[in-house]
Structures are given as C-alpha cells and as structure tokens.
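Collaborator request log, item 7. Partner lab (contact: R.S.) asked for a structural prediction of GTPase Der to inform their binding assays.
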Amino acid sequence: MAKLPTIAIVGRPNVGKSTLFNRLVGKRLALVDDRPGVTRDRREGDASLLGLEFRVIDTAGYEDEDPDTLPGRMRAQTTAAVREADAALFLIDARAGVTPLDEEIGRWLRSETTPVILAANKAEGRAGESGLLEAWSLGLGEPIPMSAEHGEGVVDLFEHIRPHVEREEAREEEEYAEDENDRPLKLAIVGRPNAGKSTLINRILEEERLITGPEAGITRDSISIDWEWQAPDGRLRPVRLIDTAGMRKRAKVQDKLEKLSVADGRRAVEFAEVIVLLLDATLGLEAQDLRIADYVLQEGRALLIAINKWDVAENHSQLFQGISAALQDGLSQAPGVPLLSVSAMTGKGLDQLLEAAFKVREVWSRRVSTGQLNRWFEAAIERNPPPAPGGKRIKLRYITQVNTRPPSFVIFGNRLEMLPDSYLRYLTNGMRKELDFGAVPVRLQTRTSKNPFNKDG
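Returned to partner:
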C-alpha cells in the first residue's frame, strides 16, 4: 500500500502552524503557545479534512540564522520536510501582514519544486483584511483566508489541498486494484434466526464447521472463518466468512445473552465489506428483513440479498417477483440490490453468490477519475438545472470523490443549503446509473465555498 500523501506546514515562528496541525489531526499533538519557537523538530500526524486523508508535517518556524546554530538546524529540518512533501502549506499571519521574513520564505519556496499553497491565518475580523491583500505580493497565487483556531476557511483549504492529495491517492488506488485479488473478501451472512446462515456457511466450506439444528438462535457469537473459493476461472480467491447471530425485532430480544449476540452481529456488519442478507423462502420477506437491510446500507456496506431454502419453496417465479417488488418499495434508497436464490441444503447458487459478492466489492471500492466525474456532473446539470428558490440562483461548481468503500462525494458551490433533497436524489440516482455504482451505498454531501469572513457571501 502506498504511503499517504504529505503536506508540510511552513512559515515564520508564531503564525499558527501548530494550531492548524492540531486541527487537521484532530488532537493536540503539537504544543501551542504565544511564545515563538515552541516547535523545534518536525512533527507528523495523520490528518483528515472533509474526507481527504493525508499526512501532515508541523515544521519549526523558518528563521534566518547561521546553519550551525539551533535555529539554523531547525531551518534545515524545515527545508528537508518541504522537499519530501507533495505540497507545502505556507502560513502567514494576516493580522501582522507580510513581513520581510515572509518575503524571504516566499522567495525560497518559489525556488523549490514542491507545489505551494498560501494561507493567511488569523484572518477573522477587519484586522486581517490588509494582510490578506498584502499576501498577493508574495507571488504564490491567491491566499486562502482562514482561522486555524476557530476552524474557519477549511472548505477553501480543502479545495487547494485536494489536487495534491488526489494525485497520490490515484497511485494508491492503482496499487490497491493490482493486489485486491490477494485480499480476503470480508463477507458476513446476516438475517433473522433460523434463516439457515450456519447451514449455508457449512455448505460453502463443505464441512460441518458450525453447529446447526432446527432450534432458532443456536449461533450466539460472530464466527470468522478464513477460506479460499475456487472461482469459475480457476483462481483461488481468499474469503473471510462471518456467521452472525440471528437478528430479531428489538422488542422480542429479552434475554441478556441474546442482546449481546445481536450487538455482536451488528459489530460484524461494521467489520465486513459485503453483507449477504439471507431470507427464508418459506416465510418470504418480512419487515425485520427490511430493517436489517436498511441498517446495512446505513453503515455503508455493500449488500446482497439471497433467498435460501429454494429447494423447498413453491411457486418459484411468483415468490421471486413478489420479493423483488417488495424490495423496490422497501429499499428505495438503494434500488436494484442484487437478489439471488440459493439452497444451503443442495448448494444451488452458491458460486453465483460468491461471484456477485466479489463483483459488488469491486464497485464499492471503485474511484472515478476527476475528469469523468465532472463530465458526468456538467451533463447532469445541463439536463436538469438546479432550481432557483425565491429567484436566487444555486450555483453548482464541481464535484469530487473524497472516499471509497463506500463511494463518497462532495459537491462544491454557492447557496447549497437551499438545494432540495429531491435534486440530491436526482444526482445520486444518476451516479448509480451512469457511473455504474448500481445499488452500493453512495454518499453525497455539499460544501459551500466562499470567504468565511466576507459577510456579503
């Protein structure tokens, strides 16, 4: 797995580098004080910004001192950090304006090959306005107004960091795709008690690995079993099978041990990648099945639904069509969830089930290129422009994928708080159909991009 892309925070002493570092990593890893020079060594941490994952380096304040002195050696550490990073985040103090040392750092950064992002910290209030304008003189592009202490300006910071992080993430995704066949598919079997979950796993393994019987509720713990499936093309694909306790309606779960078992089953859903919801063909689809399916989708997991006991079911065509229609009504948030028929007793449909599980994991893990995503986005907006409530135009600027597993996207624009849910559903359904995400959970969020300190918006 490729290492996380790296962003190095640089600037003169006491401009707020450590405060920003702590905000990005979500904890107080760096000491913060009004005195300059608190940070001496490079400090690194894993950062998350609106779904972007990267490594951030807090560097010592850049000072113009002899290389043999302590400040000089600290400066050498900062230089090394910038040269190793995918981008440098140059922080100035908007209230103090551009100082001679800021100008020197700007000249140094322009001479380096590392891309530079310029941010003006402490920009809240009128005191930061002149410093924000002065920052243009550094010749490093548009400065980002922000407040590391109050968390303002993070959307604009995200927009500037995103291209550098996504470039490295694309390489990581390529590596992931190359070795995904070597990764175990984490496959959990869930359903109501006595749907045949343990029997199904025993049939897949071709051994009596789990205790089964006519009594409901035999399985109490989530059981994890590593195994290899021989695919139709002859390849051996690693699988981690997870059997879970039956999930009954919460009101019917009275026994303390059963409550623990159901909670353990929910944790198994959180751990797994693909979930098979097993139905009992002799009972059809019940409300509890829909509740379980909804929980799986809310957790962002890929879902398959399998009708078990197909060997003893009657009126096969009518049963399948009836369950399919009920799923369309009951799972409108993920239309088209794959529905298969299997028999744990005879082994019918098990290869098709496993093949579908690997395929849906691949879709669940897929990243769409920025170009393809925005071409689709522009076409979708052109076909159906967003509404203009009260005559105010909602402007959708662009969309970016911030995560996979499940696929997660952020739309940037203006007045997005006025965008109706129906339009977001239109976009989500379009992504499912036109970008081939099918029924896997797709998460779509909006972020308004503007100067957080400009009251006029």
